[in-house]
């Protein structure tokens, strides 16, 4: 049954129409009463269009009640079915907010689209002075894909800076500052190409800046859209973020034991990707994707929560979504 917002405006299938039957008609009559409209007389015909509209409206409202009853800390929430393009639930989805390390979703996308698979990225000394040491070494050499996986699962600011400097220098920039600036320009260009009109990146890591601004801004609707693009286009890179921990080996043959910055990945059934974000300016952000029992991908994102409650927010939203899917068969 199509009971949530759909971009394509899908209609009920033949089998679904048949299954509604007498129950559907009863709900329609009840709906006229609830909505304050005059119930049709026996002589009046209730059209199929009226039935479908009222049933959909009632069921959507019921679904919203499920989510609105949850005790959530996040200021902005969005849940979508990636495969059907349907919005399951949303709150303050157009409110532009700081992203923190969700910025690194775009960092990975730009790197994948502009750095060759066989290129070797050397960790420069200038990349190791940022907040958050994840154990990268000066002059250590990495393959592109392994470094990006490591960067995403650990949310490594050093790794993001090394990637940005590598590409900037490849494009002819000499100084670290110029190299990073060129990389960030490519991030913003990609955002425009994807139609993310309310998304802007100020740095490659999402760290707060000295000017009091965060490293990137967007709304939940657009960051979920970017995450959707990223996990579909580069699933192998982002799938590493579904693990609690992984070991990565650089080209320099150095092993790195990486812990996921989302310690609760195991609490989301069927999780396939995850990205955290937190700074003093942004508060707690988190976006995850998981597979439904039917094999469809659902994306859940929260912005403006707290360091701890972003994880419980996501757990509540994900488990409630699965419960609705199982009971109502979205």
Secondary-structure map with pairings?
Layout: E1 5-6, H1 14-34, H2 48-68, E2 76-81, E3 86-91, E4 97-98, H3 103-114, E5 120-122, E6 141-143, H4 144-154, H5 157-170, H6 176-193, E7 200-201, E8 216-218, H7 220-233, H8 235-238, E9 245-249, E10 255-259, E11 271-279, E12 283-291, E13 297-305, H9 309-328
Antiparallel strand pairs: 1-3, 2-3, 2-13, 4-8, 5-6, 7-8, 9-10, 11-12, 12-13
Helix pairs in contact: 1-2, 3-4, 3-5, 3-6, 4-5, 5-6
Question: How would you portray this structure in words?
Answer:
- The protein has helices at 14-34, 48-68, 103-114, 144-154, 157-170, 176-193, 220-233, 235-238, 309-328; strands at 5-6, 76-81, 86-91, 97-98, 120-122, 141-143, 200-201, 216-218, 245-249, 255-259, 271-279, 283-291, 297-305.
- By secondary structure, the protein is α+β, with helices and mostly antiparallel strands.
- It folds into two domains: 5-69, no CATH class; 76-82 and 91-328, DD-peptidase/beta-lactamase superfamily (Beta-lactamase, 3-Layer(aba) Sandwich).
- A six-stranded antiparallel sheet has the order 1-3-2-13-12-11, with helices on both faces. It has a three-stranded antiparallel sheet with strand order 4-8-7.
- Helix 1 crosses helix 2 (48-68) and helix 4 (144-154) runs antiparallel to helix 5.
- The termini are close together.
């Amino acid at each position: 049954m199509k009971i949530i917002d759909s971009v394509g405006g899908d209609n009920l299938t033949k089998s679904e129409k048949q299954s509604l039957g007498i129950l559907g008609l009863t709900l329609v009559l009840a709906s006229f009463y609830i909505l304050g409209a005059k119930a049709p007389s026996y002589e009046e015909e209730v059209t199929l269009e009226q039935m479908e509209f009222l049933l959909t409206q009632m069921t959507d409202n019921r679904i919203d009640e499920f989510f609105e009853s949850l005790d959530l800390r996040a200021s902005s929430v969005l849940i979508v079915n990636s495969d059907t393009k349907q919005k399951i639930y949303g709150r303050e989805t157009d409110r532009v907010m700081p992203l923190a390390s969700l910025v690194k979703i775009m960092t990975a996308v730009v790197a994948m689209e502009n750095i060759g698979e066989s290129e070797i990225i050397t960790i420069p000394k200038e990349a190791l002075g940022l907040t958050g040491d994840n154990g990268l070494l000066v002059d250590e050499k990495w393959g592109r894909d392994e470094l990006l996986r490591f960067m995403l699962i650990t949310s490594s600011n050093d790794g993001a800076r090394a990637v940005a400097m590598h590409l900037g220098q490849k494009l002819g920039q000499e100084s670290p500052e110029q190299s990073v600036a060129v990389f960030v320009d490519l991030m913003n260009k990609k955002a425009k190409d994807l139609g993310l009109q309310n998304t802007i990146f100020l740095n490659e890591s999402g760290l707060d800046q000295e000017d009091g601004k965060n490293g990137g801004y967007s709304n939940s609707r657009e960051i979920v859209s970017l995450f959707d693009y990223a996990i579909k286009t580069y699933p192998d890179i982002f799938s590493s973020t579904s693990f609690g921990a992984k070991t990565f080996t650089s080209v320099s043959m150095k092993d790195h034991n990486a812990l996921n910055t989302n310690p609760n990945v195991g609490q989301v059934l069927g999780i396939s990707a995850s990205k955290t974000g937190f700074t003093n300016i942004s508060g707690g952000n988190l976006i995850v994707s998981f597979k439904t029992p039917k094999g469809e991908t659902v994306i859940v994102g929260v912005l403006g929560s707290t360091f701890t409650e972003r994880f419980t927010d996501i757990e509540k939203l994900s488990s409630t979504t699965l419960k609705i899917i199982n009971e109502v068969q979205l």
